[in-house]
Write a structure and sequence with these properties.
Shape: elongated
Strand content: 15-25%
CATH class of the largest domain: Alpha Beta
Largest sheet: 5 strands, mixed
Protein name: Restriction endonuclease
Strand order of the largest sheet: 4-5-6-11-12
CATH topology of the largest domain: Trna Endonuclease, Chain: A, domain 1
Oligomer: single chain
CATH architecture of the largest domain: 3-Layer(aba) Sandwich
Radius of gyration: 24 Å
Number of domains: 2
Distance between the termini: 50 Å
Amino acid sequence: MQFKTKNMRALAECVVGDAKHFPYRSSFYISEFFEDCGLPFRHDGSTRAIWAADRLTELLAEPSAQPNALPPRFVHLFRTLMDRSEAVDGDPDRSSALEVLNAPFRKEGYEAYFDEGAMLQFRHIKTNKVTEVSNPHRPFAPEEIKKRSQLSDYLDKCSEDELIEEILLPMFRQLGYHRITAAGHADKQLEYGKDIWMRFTLPTMHVIYFGIQAKKGKIDSSGATKAGNANIAEIYNQVSMMLGHEIFDPELNRRVLVDHAFIVAGGEITKQARNWLGGKLDQSKRAQILFMDREDILNLFVVTNIPLPAGAVPEVRFEPTDDIPF
């Protein structure tokens, strides 16, 4: 995707604060802004608007998940730019800044607007298509691919408790689930087939309860399961316990049944395992089962922009050299 040079320069002027209703940013604060956006760009001292336009052009050239959709990192930059905390005097709701921003965007066939949650959204004017940034199946940027690789390496070495505490709990919280409670592994008799239970509130204010059975490695259906993997027959027993046992919600002060069961694996869930479990469960229970394997975890963790666990970030070691005087 490519915008006209004139329109890209106008957007860059909004970023660096040369446009009306946008805070002025010197070289240092331009670099700080891109860092806040999670982007590895540092201003090199050249003309501010020209440099920013070049960076925006790079972001706009990245792939997007669907036709007529803006690239995710490009959208995230402007969402950060249009945050209400960046408002200048006389424009507390950023409506004036939004008009300035939309002038070049409309010339390219797009329109920015604030949704009900004051989040900046973009739609393609001709097709009325809204750009979705959090799609877990969209193409990833280079930095996101690197983060995904680091998380994958972490999943290879982490324990089952670390998978739950460091990966699943932060991810489900970020996705909007509430009252997330981990059963833990210290007292097995209190699990009743579930490692985590949580609830999700629908827009209608109805509450749905979920249980999670998590396994560190691969889930298969082989007769002799390798060490580190889990057999689907064991999962079947745990899921049956999960769906049949009540949980106590202290906020509502009542006991409830789990509506849906997540089967989560830090490795692969084989097709044979999914089919075996589907054949064992009756039709009503089969509709309650949701699978999530390593690929799903990696994609969701990256698109929801959750920080990596401490163990997944490689250590940076500085070694003294003869070139540095002491």
